[in-house]
Structure formats: C-alpha cells, structure tokens
Amino acid sequence: MRIAVTGSIATDHLMTFPGRFADQFVAEQLHTVSLSFLVDDLEVRRGGVGANICFGMGQLGARPLLVGAAGSDFDEYRAWLDRHGVDTASVRISEVLHTARFVCTTDADHNQIGSFYAGAMSEARQIELKKVADRVGGLDLVLIGADDPEGMLRHTEECRTRSIPFAADFSQQIARMEGDEIRTLLDGATYLFSNEYEKGLIESKTGWSDAEILSRVGHRVTTLGKQGVRIDRVGEEPIVVGCPEEETKADPTGVGDAFRAGFLSGLSWGVGLERAAQVGCMLATLVIETVGTQEYTLRRNHFMERFTKAYGHDAAAEVQAHLPETAAPVDTTPAP
To answer: According to DSSP H, which parts of 21-167 are helical?
Structure first.
C-alpha cells in the first residue's frame, strides 16, 4: 500500500529552570510581567505528528509519504527522516516562514511556560494531494493528522472528491474545532482514530452518538492507554488488543503517534486488523520506554522477542515476515 501521512512537522525546544516560577512573580505587578529565566539545559527534539508517524513507519520498513509544510530550516530534519525510510519529497518548503516550533521551560515544581509557533504549518492548506498521488502512481490511504485546520479540511474534501480512502485523526486539534468541522472531517473516513477522552469529545461536539458515528466511518480505532486499543465496526464484535509489558516508563510523548505508525504499517503489509493493532501497541511500548518521540531504534530481534511474548508465536510468525531483515543503524545525530 502507498500510504501518505499529512500532519504537522515541528521541533520542540525544551529547557529546565532550576528554581520555581512562583517565586519570581510579584502579586501587585502581574499586569506588567517582564521576566527572563537562566536555564540549566536545552533539549531540541524532532516532532510533529506527521513526522512522528512517518518515522515509526520508516523504522518498520513501510516507506510512508510525509505530506506537510516546513521552513527553509528543514534540511537537517529532512535528512534525518530520509535516512530512516521516509519519503519527504512531498513536503512543502515555505519561502518566508520557519518550521513550526514549540518552546517550553519547566521549573523545579514541573510547572511549564511554553509557546507554540505554527510558522510554515499554516501553508499545509496549499498542498494538493493530486500532485502527491501523481508522483507515486496513486495513493491507497491518506491519514489526515493534526495540522493546519484549513489544510485538514482541504485534504479531507480532496480525498472524497478523488475517491481516495482516508483516515481521520484530529488529535490535539480537536480542542479548537467546532462540531461542523469535526462532522466534515470524519464523515466517510475508512478509519477514525482517537483516544478515550477524544472519543467522548467528538460525540459531544458533533451531537452524534457512538452508533451514529460508527455508521459514518468504516472502523473506529480507540486507544485505551495502558489497556491497549479497541477497534469497532458496524455489525461486528469489537477487536480488543492489549499492550505488551513495559520495561520502564520514561516519557509518554508520542505514544499515540507510534501506535498509528505500527497500525498503518500493519495495514500496508496486509496482516489484518488484529495484527496491525498488535504491531501498533508494540511500537507504542518502545516509545514510552524512550525519552523523545523519534529517539528509539527498532532492533528486529528485540522487537520480535517482545512481540512473541505478548501475542504468541503464530502472531509473531505472521509479522516477522514483513519486518526489515536488518535492524536500523543507531543514529546519534543530534536534533537541529
């Protein structure tokens, strides 16, 4: 399958302040705050839901197409993704805006002050999926992930117009969307992704019941945190898949993106919904054990040992045939 993933491309700049923000504020002067903080360290991590999902698919050998917008500062990030099996030829490069960026400082009490710069992400609405499809000889599925809202709407309408199957995945953008937008984005989707909280929010904002939404999509894929995932289809029993046992819990950021990467890779292999969900849960477990969304390396033998322990030998035999023969090399190149 040729799977395109539309979604944000961004970098996270994370800093640590050794003191407490609360100690720096003067109650009588809160109307005119002017502060700067000397921080101890800076971590720059690659991120963005589109890039995170594609990175995971690349690790699994699925060769995804990343569709999104970035700035002229994208060169190093592009090279990183290219090295890890991602087709980045359809990324739009803005002539005037930088790649989206999240800048956040965390204090000793784990309070945070952060800012998100959308930047080039706002140009995602200018990307035409037809050009992407023409370049690769057609698309079998487009995942429409969190991105510029106008871009998400355009990609959804184009998929409908051109009869391209699509997956709706609102993620963090659901908070700013109204019911009409959500109804437009999910109606006719082959897959609808959400976590449990987002599932309730979708129903609340659209005014549609769970059954009504399920009647408008092919599959409703709901992640359940440590309980795994449930896949619902009209007239069928739900498919419920649990998560493998965690070795450690380092950082939950990007776990949902990793599940989607594994699930979509399984679909591209044609292994069926249950197996695809198992691959997604295994990859998500690797990510939760790593700090950062793209800092893990998929080691084939290690992956299969843990997959076999979690899901059995029959499931492992079916999946193993599709994994890359050699493990991806450990890449220690620092983030930009």
So the answer is: 49-59, 75-83, 129-136, 149-161
Give CA–CA dist 317/38, Å, rounded: 53
CA 66 to chain centre: 11
**Banded model confidence at residue 29, pLDDT cuts 50, 70, 90:** low
Is residue 282 within 8 A of residue 306, CB to CB? The reply is yes
Amino acid, single-letter form, for residue 260: R
Residue ranges of E strands in the chain:
3-6, 10-16, 41-47, 65-67, 69-70, 92-93, 100-106, 112-117, 141-144, 166-168, 191-195, 219-223, 229-232, 239-241
Mean pLDDT of the chain: 92
- CB neighbours of residue 336 within 10 Å: 15
> What residues pair up with 44 in beta bridges, in sequence order?
13
Please name the residues in contact with 191: beta carbons below 8 A apart, sequence gap of 6 or more: 143, 167, 168, 217, 218, 219, 220, 221
- Residue 329 has what pLDDT? 43
Which amino acid is located at 72 in the chain? S
Is 322's pLDDT higher than 80?
yes
Distance CA 140, CA 5 (A): 11
Q: If you write DSSP's letter for every residue of 206-237 in order, what string do you get?
A: H---HHHHHHHSSEEEEE-GGG-EEEE-TTSP
Which positions are catalytic? 257
pTM of the model: 0.90
User: pLDDT (tens digit, 9 = 90+) per residue, 141-199?
Assistant: 999 999 999 999 999 999 999 999 999 999 888 988 999 999 999 999 999 999 999 99
> Residue holding tokens 């450990």?
330
pLDDT at residue number 43: 87
How far, CA to CA in Å, does 40 sit from each of 12, 16, 113, 292? 16, 6, 15, 19
Q: Are strands 229-232 and 219-223 parallel, antiparallel or unpaired?
A: antiparallel
Closest CA to 280 of 205, 208, 229, 209: 229
